[in-house]
Amino acid sequence: MRIRGKVLLICLFLGCLFSSGCWDRVEIEDMGLVTLAAFDRSEDGLIKVSVHIAKPFAISGAGQDIIDEKPFWPVTTTGHTVFQAIRNLASESPRQVFWAHCRVVLIGERLAREAAGMAQVMDFFMRDLEPRNNAQLLVVKGADIQEIMSARFELERQPGRGFEGLSKVVEARKSTALIPTILEFCRELETDGLEPVLGAAEIVHRPTEQPQQSMLHETVVSNSARISGLGAFKGDRLVGWLNDHQSRGVLWVRGKVKSGIIVIRNPLEENRLISLEIGQTSSKIIPKLIDGRPVIKVRIELDAVFAQTQGQFPLLSDEKTWARMESRMATAIHNEVVSALKVAQDELESDIFGFGRAFYGKYPREWQVMKDNWDEIFPTLDVQVEVHGKIVRSSLAFRTVKTR
């Protein structure tokens, strides 16, 4: 019993040694939580970082005297490197800046267009323990990061939450942009035969007429933001832009289209339009070598729903009319893909579709030969696009509402 007691005492003593607490802990009331961050190159050649730091007392709305205060504090610093610029925030923030709650990162166009510009930012997020690499990544189009960071959203008090929600909605409901996480972007950077793309964030200027004042306080958002199209990269350098039409063409090939609207002309009345809602989709990239020459075949399949029509349209019409609608839908999708191909091959010269990756998967030996010359092969690559679409149903109604 005496030996057992001594052993127990020693175990308790050792337990106390290894339960001394976290030596580098920071209390939450001493933290400044970053909710949104942006990086760019300043006019004098330094790295510029701009962040929103949450104001807990303004978010809670405790007290009528501060209820209208901004729930975040915008602050900007510069440095010779990304890490130095971030650490320089300590010169202005009375709380230790904490990055784990940053859900959206914006990259300015000036920094994105320079060689190794994106790599500097990605190196910080992938190397440091504090920030999360599942933050969503956007590239800023046609605006300075100070201007985009001043954007506000009517339905969100925190702009970071606004950008995060907007990214999810655009991907899920329109499929005209792709917003990867930092980790996904880095994986594409390291994937042979695939160039990355990022959703393009741009500023939206709205009228600034003052509203009539009433018992409820009203404000006008003069600068908001939207996500429109894609920024195309070659390596880690931004090389150009694609509009919504071309961006969905890229996503058709990549198999990333989730939903959206296709507008076609009514085959019975050419001056009337029909809206079709995209349902289930799939795509396949089929690489071939014909006489030693690389050829790509893209096969796209989808189901769509008859969503809305202008004027009267007999939904239970003959099969030929239904087939004509499906043919026009397939043509519309084909045109989106061809438009994206033309820009990527003729202007950007960047394989944002992943054709090279497809050759690597099917012809690994031949790819080792093509790999070094892919930048010269891709602009003249023969790409055949095949679209098969079916209109499966007509939402909730079988006929249009009749007007008197």
Largest sheet composition: 9 strands, mixed
| Order of SSEs | HEEHEHEEHHEHHHEEEHEEEHHHHE
Number of domain modules: 2
Q: Approximately what portion of the residues adopt beta-strand conformation?
A: 25-35%
Count the E strands. 13
**How far is the first residue's CA from the last residue's CA?**
100 Å
Task: Please work out how many helical segments DSSP would assign.
Answer: 13
- Rg (C-alpha, Å): 27 Å
Helix content: 25-40%
Shape: globular
* Uncertain residue segments: 61-66
* Overall pLDDT score: 88
Helices and strands: which structural class? alpha/beta
Labels describing this entry:
13 helices; GMP Synthetase, Chain A, domain 3; 2 domains; four-stranded mixed beta sheet; 404 residues; nine-stranded mixed beta sheet; alpha/beta; 13 strands
